[in-house]
Amino acid sequence: MMPRSRTGKEACRGIRPGGRLAQGHCRWKRVAAALGVTWTMALGAAAVATVLLTPGATYAQSPVPSLQTREVGGATADPAGSAPVLDVSSGISGTEVAPEAVAAIARNLNCPLCQGYNLQDCPLVVCAQMRDLIRQQLAAGQSSEQIMAGFVADYGPVVLNAPPTTGVFLTAWVLPGLILLAGAVVVALLLRRMKRAAAPRAAASGFGGDPAVEVDPEYASKLELLARDGDR
Amino acid sequence: MAEIGYFALVLAFGAAAYAVAASALGAVRGIGALVLSGRRALLAVGGLTTVAAGCLVALFLVGDYSVQYVWQTSSRTTPLFYLLTGMWGGQAGSLLFWSWLMAVFACLAVLRTWRADIALLPWFTAVSAFITGFFLFLVAFVSNPFARLAVVPPDGNGLNPLLQHPGMAFHPPTLYLGFTGMAIPFAFAMAALISRRTDAGWITASRRWTLVAWMFLGIGLALGGRWAYDVLGWGGYWAWDPVENAAFMPFLAATAFLHSVIIQERRGIFKVWNMFLIILTFSLVIIGTFLTRAGLVSSVHAFAQSDIGAYFLVFTAIICLGSLGLLWYRLPDLRTKEQIDSILSRESTFLANNLLFMGALFAVFWGTLFPLFSEIVTGQRVTVRPPYFNKLVIPIFWLIILVMGVSVVIGWRRADARAVARSLAGPAAASLVITGALWLAGVRHWIAVVGLSSCFFALLLTLAEIWRGVRARHSRGEGWFTATRRLFALGRRRYGGYVVHVGVILLAMGVVGSNVYQLEAERTLAVGETLAIGAYTLTYTGLGETQEADKASVFANLAVNRGGRSLGVLRPSKDVFRLREDQPMTIPGVMSLPLEDVYTLLGNLSPESGRATIKAYVNPLIGFVWLGLIVLILGTVIAAWPDGSEQRVMNAELQRLTAGTAPEPAAG
Fold this sequence. Notes:
The structure holds two protein chains of two kinds. In chain A, 52% of the residues lie in helices and 0% in strands. By secondary structure, chain A is mainly alpha-helical. Mean pLDDT of chain A is 61; it is low at 1-26, 50-94, 201-217 and 228-232. Helix content of chain B is 64%, strand content 12%. Chain B has 20 helices and ten strands. Chain B has helices at residues 2-29, 32-62, 68-73, 80-84, 91-113, 121-142, 166-195, 201-232, 242-267, 271-294, 309-329, 331-334, 346-378, 386-407, 417-440, 446-474, 480-490, 492-516, 622-640, 646-659; strands at 519-525, 530-533, 536-547, 551-562, 565-570, 573-577, 580-587, 589-592, 596-606, 611-620. In chain B, the strands form two sheets. In chain B, strands 2, 3, 4, 5, 6 and 7 form a six-stranded antiparallel sheet that branches. In chain B, strands 1-10-9-8 form a four-stranded antiparallel sheet, with helices on one face. In chain B, a hairpin with a 3-residue loop joins strand 3 (536-547) and strand 4 (551-562). Mean pLDDT of chain B is 86; it is low at 660-668.
């Protein structure tokens, strides 16, 4: 069995029999390691940035159509055949409006009648008419901000699929992020304190486990070692 | 029959009450006979609720419509399968089902572990009998499934069409299995607090229960998603609906708990935190049920609303305040010297896991309750729907995936930073290469790039870790198969856990693909016209209809073509159940191809002209969601597999280690 603690270089040499090969092997591995760590850190930084920045985004921002999951709905569709045929593509003639542009707005709004569906997925005729209204407004040159603001003026903020980012509603967006940050600070402080508490104990090499552990820890660590370091 | 069932229920309630009193008194006074009597009473509760549940099933099979509940949720034309599942088709039956599961679980737990944890069990009996007793009280005195109607109707009302789907038949019971299963570790934790045996005994005793309950919660959530995908007709599977969230929150808390108990078992620290997590998990189960039943949040599950909310409120208060109070009272017993050897250790990755899961849990919780909060504070109701949750929760899940991948190469106690970096390097480089290849193949949306590359990174790290274990054993002379088998047999929880991780990663890939690259198209078609979506052409060839005993359906025939090759015919339909004509169902026609699903819905149609509005979606990688789920179940089964031979195998291993001899071929 391999000894437990080794310096990095020794460990490196141990990887493959034959020192020279292992040396060269080590160099590119270190480069790759640096790359890997940088990449992970960049991802982490991007993550923090996402968590911090996205809450600030406003509903009126032109939405990414991609990450919007659709609504599960109250599942009351029109009885088959009871509603007139509705050809959605027969809006106003003239200016062409991409259906994606309409969908991007409609997906951020709720069907004002049924609980659940968003305006894009709602099968009700009223909602189709509202989608048509959005198309007309887009064709008339209104921005998505103006259209959404119009809906809010007509139906109140409840028509939006997510709370606005103003006033009290801002807490909806900010609080979870703040809690997570506070949690991160607490965990960091905790780790530091626990680390310090462990320092005087470092010399004594007793196992700190709980006596009631099902499997003898000594034994478990031996087995783990066997599994991990087997062929180094 | 109904009378027998009801009588059994009342008796069961009495027995549960007695079990609480006898066990508690016996434990306090140290009277062994009382403790044994309490145990027998709990077993009797199990038997009696089984009788009651059996009676209800029998009433369904016989079709006794004088019983209101049977009348409400079945009819003469209901297929046998849905008669058997009719028990959870409505509230009263669901509650009975819940009490039955709870009682049976408690009995099993008591029978399996009676000798091992004799000091915990009187209190375990008392707590679990108390929880069972509450549900029995509800079914016996508030929402009785055996209540008779004054007039006997000739036929039943029929099961809610929404529930007539295989996914829905299994979705509620698996969720209930998960919910009630979580009561077992909770009861053990309470027993440990009351009896002041706060070592890891309660965790060991309830570990498998927690794992299995967690798995059932997961399956239940996924089946709910499958049901939504197949029945609700909006092309997706998860909508952050308040009731979905209510079931998802205990799952998040339980996931944190599953991980953090490992630290307590290994290192004896975080006792208070683990107690808190299990209390949180079970409280969320009860709160979730309360939210759903009380209808405080509007949702697709509106049919589950009822007036038993008030009882649940009281019960929730007792469970939350009681358990937290108890924890507070016993805090001095739980103090440990919380120490770690290094910041870079498996212990800290578990802390990171807990932090992120708690963060996700809070975001879901806050989003679910925010409409309520907003109405109270501003008087204005707002809607909190996918755009909110996706923005807040998905970044956290992404971090969880990263931590999940990185943590497997960080060892316990003190990890060597260079060794860790070395282990990270290969998978990082490989996932960069894969991402590059995907970029060239046209996967360029930033969410897909970040999401998929992180998934590949975590996946490769996890697979590499498993591979390392197998190779280590192989190099000691074991065959590949034996090496794999032994590795999993010896580190069942660890490697089972890794398999679960692989499942979660696959699921995440499916979620990324199906959200970022979903295509959508809608058109009103005359016969012979086509709708093009992505690489597919759907040709509408006319309407058709079928008549069955209980329903009539109209469907559109859509011939699916890709690149000039015919792939088959899709038949999205509108189903109208005779007994519920006001509630037509839009059933999608779905074609599952290896990498994506073609999903079609039949919208409005005019019978005269034969024109139909067709909505079509292409959902890429959605198969990965279901595949990931299967892998997840497999991993949980590996981790929770009862291992009688574990000790034997370990002994053989230890002998080998100490003697340094060649491996015995027959071990394991």
